[in-house]
Amino acid sequence: MNDIVTWAALAPVLALLGSLINGLFGRRLKEPLPGIIGSVAVGAGFVLSFIAFIALLGRTEPSVSLVLWPYLNAGSFSLELGFVIDSLSVIMMMIVTGVGLLIHIYSIGYMHGDSGFSRYFAGLNLFIAAMLILVMADSFLLMFVGWEGVGVVSYLLIGFWYRERLNADAARKAFIVNRIGDVGFLLAMFLIFKTFGTLNIAEVNEAALSLVFGSAALSLIALLLLLAATGKSAQLPLQVWLPDAMAGPTPVSALIHAATMVTAGVYLIARAAPLFAQSPAAAATVAWVGALTAIIAAFVALSQKDIKKILAYSTISQLGYMFVAVGVGAYWVGIFHFFTNAFFKALLFLTAGSVIHALGGEQNIDKMGGLGKSMKITGGTALIAALAISGAPFLSGFFSKDAILSASFNSELIAGYGNYVIYAILLLTAVMTAFYMFRWYYRVFAGSERLDKETKVRLHESPSIMTVPLLILAFFSVVAGYIGLPEFAFPNWLAPWLEQSIEAPVNFVHRAVLTEWLLIGLSVLAVAVGLGLAYWVYHLKNAAPLARFNQGFLGALNRFSQSGAGFDGLYRNVFINPGEGTAGGLAAVDKEVIDRGIRAGFVSVGLLGRLLGLWQSGYVRIYALAMLAGIAILVILLAVTGVMA
Amino acid sequence: MPLVLPDIDWLTLAPLLVLLSTASLAALYALYNRSSKAVALLALLGLAVAAIFNLQLFVASRAGELRSSFGLRYLADQGALAFNFVILLGAALAILISYDYLKRAELEQPEYYPLMLLSASGAMVMAAAGDLIILLLGLEIMSLAVYVLSAWRQQARESAEAGMKYFLLGAFASAFLIYGIALIYGATGFFSYPQIVAGLLAEGFEQIFLATLGGIMILAGLGFKVALVPFHQWAPDVYTGAPTPVTAFMSVVVKTAAFAALLRIFAFIYPELGVLAVQSLVVLIALTLIVGNFTALVQRGIKRMLAYSAVAHAGYLALAVLAAGNLGMRAAIWYLTAYTLMNAGAFAVLTLLSDRNDHGDDLERFAGLARSRPYLAAAMTVFLLSLAGIPLLAGFVGKILVFSAAIEAGYVSLTVIAIITSVVAMVYYLRPVMYMYFREPEYEPLQTNSRSTHIAIGIAVFGTVLLGIFPGWWYSLLDLGQSLLAGL
Fold it and tell me: Do residue A252 and residue A223 come from a single domain?
């Protein structure tokens, strides 16, 4: 512990401690004490992470490994548990604890008066601890500890307000879909161990670089890790859980389902970069998954009416951008977008939380409007966040999104013209992003008020314990992008800093400076088009042009978008209820079908269980018969196959 | 034929003899003094002394010394001794859980404890058996006592039914086992494992069909005890009907013993039988994993859910049996240690939550437990998360060890099934956790307290966490160089 950097290893311990105190004694503590304990625990973690960051800044090799203890050491299986604090993980740690701290503070105001106040902070702290373990882990095994930890806590926090049946269902859905991803992680882990004989990430990465380019084992491992990543990061085809996860308290959505946990998949791929860089097929799959997710989620976000669901789909879409970045081999860019996204996306959710708080639980944007007048700070910061996520020039999102666009245009990892198609998809998505974000902004904060009378009376700006975090996040949403200016013309601090930890050989075409400027011009144009369209439709015409979207082809398109691009219905038809035919189909999926689909999913799993239970009649003779049948089948098999000794 | 006296190494038999004599002494004592407390303490003392002898043997065996009795028919090799520790631990936990429970349920009769000791001694015989007849002997000693124990709550219909059911089906399963033994004897002419193997490998051996048939019958007989599908159906009924501490005992001690026996037979005899012998275990494992986990999903009662979870865990353990070899053996012992702690712990918590008729183990009773009984809820959470295989708890390490042993042995697709079902399992293990922490209580929780049960829960929590965070020490104790099974 001579090295000051290693003190950062205490960060997860502190969060765990905070969780234990709140969990075991929270009931005896008066509000807001549990909130203060939780915030202090996370805040201290942030200070330690920040000190570690400063200490690492001056070093030629910014990486410190810390062995915690030898875990298993016997024969072929040898494993140590340890943390690695390097340029990659320290950035993640600062975001997790920094944004985490702001959200903790905000929550003190948001959760005021809730009967589960201390329980809530216990859960939030536990999440921070698990997330820190995930990013600091030096082995896939320890990373899996954090991976499962954040999954479990997320499950518990989505179902926090369990009284509503919908929340319990949403929690279960999130949990089950995430388990599919976990299967991928576990299988990948065993395969890694079988291939490389170790689970230490650094050793695996090094060994992967010496393996044959594009070897089958490598591709399989990478694809399984991708499955894990799609589950956690809500990418196609496992994105269905995230919109439902919005049932949890809004700060939880901000922290877990927007800023941190859902980016774990991106982090995983960046951490295991050589596995992907050495396997072009897997890398291309990552990029395509990301691109398709980005555009489909943006398409769905166009028509949603729930203030949080719009943001949920935008999260999925932004995660798609990050996947493209790490897919085309621009690993630092993926982390860069994570970095800027953490601020403006957390900010968007917290402003939404502020609105919901002020309106007493209303979430339908059709019943809002004009709120910017009475909620000046919330409205103003929301505008900044919306501009940032849309990629308006000189705000943080502009730089990170542009870096992704240029990386996908220039990458040599994707064979053929695939990278240009991906670029085009992302550019179109950028137009849509600007449009749906400003639809969101205009419908909520600008234009005419459409509030119910009773809600209007209650309308108020949130207390300063909630607005101060908003202002801090807004500040970073503006400036966070300047650490990663376009490399071709400006000094870029982030890329060389992160690439010290990510050693993966990916080539990018170096184009003429003019081309690069042209690409930037295109991105700006895309934002301008989307923004202008939203301004025209929702500000100038007050949503009048939308009347056309009620019938015919456009109407079908609209309904398709509203249904979440039909995925829930699709799963119901393909996996859950194949016998029922495609009557519901892709096009005509309405709300009711989706709900039924979710329920049918549980019913059909339950049905299998019940069928098996029927067999459990309670009669001894039936049981004896089953045993006899079992043995008879084995004996007959033996007789039929003969003896192959 | 000259009469040959068996060679007897008394130290080898010492742990067994200590248990037997303690049981007899306790039973005699109970004739004059009906105080349960004294008998229970005596039983615990007996277990402790047996553990000390076992430790001495274990140290000796690690030094490379193989002790045995009756000409390699009763072995004190590292495998057997490690299993003995698990069995003694399981029995001690069960006795601790029982003490106040029996008082509360007015079932207090001191004979209960000697029966448990007798059953544990049978379990130890099974672990040490290097001969099919000795194995059968151990199995019957163990089972007879458990039949009686599971019907201990005589006045309650379910308990009597559980005992009867277990007895009838157990007898049926024993018949398979005996038939299998007879077939193997008929084919090779021997009962002891090394001789059977020698017989199977002998030049001109033609009875492979009979021997394989025998192997399958033995698998069915032992598969019944560990509850492999389709020989599992007794388990949910008997687990629910029997008094909860007895369920705990059954789920850990009986399972450990039967797996110990299965591991040894599988490591020695199975490789020499026809391929179908091994293949049939593959099929049984796949069935067990799927049926056990999916049925557990829909259970409302926690005790019944744990019964199906026990079936599912038998599947994971059998995977280790299939992997055979040292790696599988070590994984199985490790897994059983973890399983004993977490499962006995979970049942211990249940005894404090159900009323004196063992009712009230449904999910709703768990609602809001974190508020009314925070420590109990925390302990139950540890057990359930460990059973689910959440990392840094004992159950997770067990699964990792078993899965990697199975992959090493080449059973990749079966391991994939195991991984997928273990992920499904999380849903039913986490549901009670959700209820405990995130629901308002629907019932006034029972404020049952019991010092001895608390001690058992404390030991189990400590062990589950310790083994999860520092798995290395127990794993490395399980030998690094030589084989765990003598003669393998």
Answer: yes
Of A23, A610, A616, the CB nearest to B236: A616
Distance (Å, rounded) from C-alpha A365 to C-alpha A439? 10
Query: Between chains, do B438 and A72 touch, taking CB under 8 Å as contact?
Result: no
∠ CA B98-B100-B106, nearest 5°, is 95
Nearest to B459, CA basis, from B333, B340, B366, B334: B340
Does residue B61 register a pLDDT over 50? yes
Mean pLDDT comparison of A500-514, B84-98, B142-156, highest-scoring range: B84-98
Token pair recorded at residue A9: 């290893």
Least confident of A57-66, A579-588, B226-235, B389-398: A579-588
Mean pLDDT of B160-180: 90
A409: CB partners within 8 A, 6+ apart: A419, A420, A423, A519
Identify the weakest region by mean pLDDT among A423-427, B168-172, B238-242, B295-299: B295-299
Best residue of A69, A79, A163, A623 to probe chain B, by most B CBs closer than 10 Å: A623
- Mean per-residue pLDDT of chain B: 87
Whether residue B434 is predicted with pLDDT greater than 90 in this model: the reply is: no
* A residues 570-609 closer than 8 Å to B (CB): 605-606, 608-609
Domain count within chain A? 4
> Which of A163-167, B379-383, B416-420 is predicted most confidently?
B379-383
Same domain? For A342 and A466 the reply is yes
The H or E element spanning position B477 is helix B472-477
Compute CA A537 distance to the chain's CA centroid, rounded to the nearest angstrom: 30
How far is the C-alpha of A110 from the C-alpha of A251, rounded, in Å? 8
Is A451 within 8 Å of A369 (Cβ atoms)? yes
Half-sphere exposure of B172 (CA within 13 A, CB side): 21
Would you call A175 and B430 a contact, using CB atoms and an 8 Å cutoff?
yes
Q: A194 and B472: CB-CB below 8 Å?
A: no
Q: A525 and A433, same structural domain? A: yes
Please report the beta strands in A128-235, taking only residues with DSSP state E, as ranges in sequence order.
none
Angstroms from B296 CA to nearest CA on chain A: 7
Model ipTM?
0.79
CB pairs under 8 A between A and B: 166
Is A637 close to B438, i.e. CB distance below 8 A? no
Cβ separation of A156 and B438 shorter than 8 Å?
yes
Are A523 and A595 within one domain? no
Do residue A370 and residue A256 come from a single domain?
yes
Residue A514 CB neighbours (<10 A): 8
Instruction: Find where tokens 């400027």 sit.
Output: A517
A570 in the same domain as A525: no
Determine, yes or no, domain membership for A606: no
Tell me how far apart the alpha carbons of residues B346 and B365 are, in angstroms, rounded to a whole number. Answer: 15
Q: Answer yes or no: are the C-beta atoms of B191 and B231 closer than 8 Å.
A: no
Residue A605 inside a domain? The answer is no
Residues in contact with B401: Cβ distance below 8 Å, sequence separation at least 6, in sequence order: A72, A77, B320, B330, B331, B334, B335, B475
DSSP conformation class of A212: P
Domain containing A621: what range?
A: 611-645
Q: Does B479 score more than 70 pLDDT?
A: no
Q: Please check whether residue B344 is in contact with residue B456, taking contact to mean a CB–CB distance below 8 angstroms.
A: yes
Measured between CA atoms, the residue of chain A closest to residue B430 is A152
pLDDT, average across residues B328-348: 92
Q: Do A72 and B475 touch (CB under 8 A)?
A: yes
Q: Considering the entire predicted model, what is its pTM?
A: 0.85
**Residue B116 to chain A, least CA–CA distance (Å):** 25
**Low-confidence spans in chain A with pLDDT less than 50:** 576-599, 644-645
Same-domain status, A239 and A356: yes
Same domain, A473 and A617: no
Name which of A165, A177, A160, A171 is nearest A568 in CA terms.
A177
CB atoms within 10 A of CB B8: 11
